[in-house]
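Chain X:
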Amino acid sequence: MTLNSWLEELDACDEAVDWSKKYQTLPKAWIECPRGDWLIWLAATMEGKRGWPTKRKIVSVACDCVEMAIKEFPADEVESTKRAIKVVRAWTRGAVDAKEMRAAVYNTENEGCWYPLDWMCDYINHGNATNASFVVEKAVCTIVGQYSRVETIEVYNKAIKRMATVVRRRLKPGPWPGKKGGK
């Protein structure tokens, strides 16, 4: 099975499937992937399978991406977001339950980073990999929202690449059903 056909089988977005055609192996594609949302999506899709990250690990990395986004805001505008991230991180360690975590996230509703946190809660509660990828994508959109329209595409591309670097540092891909035993 090729990487490309495996991603199609997993129902990856068309853009990711097209991008993957030039790669023979997952490790090489993972290292060169320009999009953090694609990496998080794949990890979340494979969550729980042998060798792949757990949901708690994926959420911890998603928190890193949201923290990157909130750096774009004045500190006094993101205090409840910072508190919510601490509670979400506590959930990743098993120190609080999902209900407490969700309540902390809802307290951020009027802040700029509420959307990625809300998608994170949906991923935690429902396990949908698309929701996990939206955490990263919405965090990027939060960053982009701080810039003028002229800068938007350039800022978006830089932010999504920076988030891919964050994801790669903390998550490693597991086996895939490709050539030579899945590695």
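Chain Y:
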Amino acid sequence: MFGLDELPIPLPDAPLAWDDVGTDLSECVVSSRRSLLVFYLAALAWLALDQWSKMMVVRHIPLMASVPVINQYFALTHVTNTGGAWSLLAGKTIALGLLSLGVCLGIMVYERRWQGRNLAQSLGLALLLGGAAGNMIDRLHVQHVVDMFDLQWHGRNVFPIFNVADIGIDIGVGLLLLCSLFERPQTSDRPQPEPRPLGSESPT
């Protein structure tokens, strides 16, 4: 029989702390297959939601008409935009559509090369892709983007009207920025060499 101090079982040098477990979302590094699945499913879901919402607005709300949701503060207003954000580059729809296509391809390539990302970062990239693809389809298919969410103050518009794709882009950028701000710096597990005392160097 072995005594407790003689059991041939390796014991940890120090007790594990909860900080070592990494149970929060920002530390949940996902495997490559799971990450790929989360990335494309989330992107396709957001793209589908964007296209469905635009289809419903086109079918049920006449162009330039508005339907109040929260009276004098929020409405669904059917407008179109041939430019980018805040109607920049208005009329350059095809060029912006091709630019959006390049952004989508770039996001997919970047996703494949980004190793060790966590779930929040995968979701951020997915929302970016879904949003960029939603506006790209509009620009290349109908030569304009359908917008509908109208923020108001006492019945007057106070912010550029936007859509689901725009929301996805904003949330995606926000998630990536938050992850970069709170990401812990990677530390090496290799033992560092101990400093030599002065005068211990061999003469040359």
